[in-house]
Design a protein that fits this description.
The structure is a single chain. The protein has helices at residues 2-18, 23-45, 49-60, 65-71, 81-118, 140-154, 168-171, 204-212, 252-266, 320-326, 342-350, 363-366; strands at residues 158-159, 165-167, 191-193, 196-198, 217-226, 237-247, 273-280, 283-292, 309-318, 334-341. The chain is built from twelve helices and ten strands. The protein is of the alpha+beta class and 370 residues long. A seven-stranded mixed β-sheet has the order 1-5-6-10-9-8-7, sandwiched between helices. Bound molecules: phenylalanine. The site of phenylalanine has 10 residues, from β9 and β10.
Length: 370
């Protein structure tokens, strides 16, 4: 390349010398062609854009050397101007080409080094996670609730929802809970007005469902309930999953089969289920359902207080009086209902001794349930 330019300049020099230009013009042109050898060499070696830009200003800028050479054309006799101009223009082109060539080279090498700098090694392991970049996870109670719901939807139950701020009519009246029942006492429920309260059980959704849906149906309703209790096994807010099946010929043994299936799926295949007689105004007969202790397998331990059994839920056959109040023909349909405590289920499954651990949201505890 340099050689080529050298040869070109040599050729131009003799062309200038052999031309009929005035001696003064000839010597001016030759001098510039000679100086250009050095100038072009500097351009070809410019290391950074800034340097190259300075050289552009120096040679072909507004008052650069070649530009001012152009201006001196006016001192050349008119008939010699075209040829003189041709030589000057050629020189100008030589500089401009040299500059843009160098510019392209610099740009390419800059791009290459940037690419090297910014290249990613996708095989490297990610940086260690910090407290703020730790991924989130579902709360253990949400996990347990999801597990329970999944088992029932797997048995053909559909999920329904109901309000947490509820009329006493649904929380008590339609559930056959008489006016003088202790559960209605203001000390046992959070009343908002005499007719409205924070629901104390998800059983209200039973009444709402029976009022609006035509049997047969199988529903579960997970949700929050509220009672003014607080100790290691009670919280003013806790969650239940209500279940209700209404169809023809539904019996207590269907309830038992469904709950046994649930217990085996949710706890373990060898979990035993025990029914104890109990009382709820909305079920008749009513039962309290115990499971063989998840910790000791029934031998008796601290968790089950030596009994080998853990109480999990209340259930029963729907009281025909409830059907009558909710507009379902009790001579045609029967049903069963159950209410599982979600916190209780979580405590039994994971051997958690104090319900408050589930609400304190201590990450050391939460992390164990990922
Ligand atoms: N609602 C009852 C409770 O909170 C549980 C229950 C639900 C009992 C359905 C029978 C049928 O204790």
């Amino acid at each position: 390349m340099k050689d080529q330019i050298g040869k070109l300049i040599e050729a131009r020099r003799s062309a200038i010398e052999n031309s009929d230009l005035p001696e003064s013009v000839k010597s001016m042109l030759v001098r510039h062609y000679e100086l250009s050898v050095e100038g072009l060499k500097i351009i070809a070696e410019a290391g950074i854009f800034k340097e190259l830009n300075d050289l552009r200003v120096k040679y072909v800028g507004k008052s650069g050397e070649i530009t001012s050479l152009m201006k001196s054309l006016k001192d050349v006799p008119a008939d010699k101007r075209p040829l003189t101009g041709k030589f000057i223009n050629e020189l100008k082109t030589l500089f401009e080409n040299a500059i843009s060539e160098r510019e392209a080279l610099l740009a390419a090498s800059e791009r290459r080094s940037r690419e090297e700098r910014e290249s990613l090694d996708v095989t490297l392991s990610p940086p260690a996670t910090t407290a703020s970049s730790r991924p989130g996870a579902l709360h253990p109670l949400t996990l347990v609730k999801n597990d329970i719901v999944k088992i029932f939807t797997g048995m053909g139950f559909t999920i329904v929802d109901g309000p947490e701020v509820e009329y006493t009519k649904y929380n008590f009246g339609l559930l056959n809970i008489p006016e003088d029942h202790p559960a209605r006492d203001p000390a046992d429920s959070f009343y908002i007005t005499p007719d409205i309260l924070l629901r104390s059980q998800t059983s209200c959704v039973q009444a709402r469902t029976m009022e609006t849906m035509a049997p047969p149906f199988r529903i579960v309703c997970p949700g929050k309930v509220y009672r003014p209790d607080e100790d290691a096994t009670h919280s003013p807010m806790f969650q239940q999953i209500e279940g209700l099946v209404v169809d023809k010929h539904v019996t207590l043994s269907d309830l038992k089969a469904v709950l046994e299936e649930f217990a085996r799926k949710f706890f373990s295949a060898d979990t035993k289920v025990r029914f104890r007689p109990s009382f709820f105004p909305f079920t008749e007969p009513s039962v309290e359902v115990d499971l063989s202790c998840a910790m000791c397998g029934g031998k008796g331990c601290r968790l089950c207080k030596g009994t080998g059994w853990l109480e999990l839920l209340g259930a029963g056959v729907v009281n025909p009086a409830v059907f009558d109040m909710c507009g379902i023909d009790s001579s045609v349909y029967s049903g069963f209902a159950f209410g599982i405590g979600i916190e209780r289920a979580a405590m039994i499954k994971y051997g958690i001794p104090d319900m408050r651990l589930l609400f304190d949201n201590d990450v050391r505890i939460l992390e164990q349930f990922r």
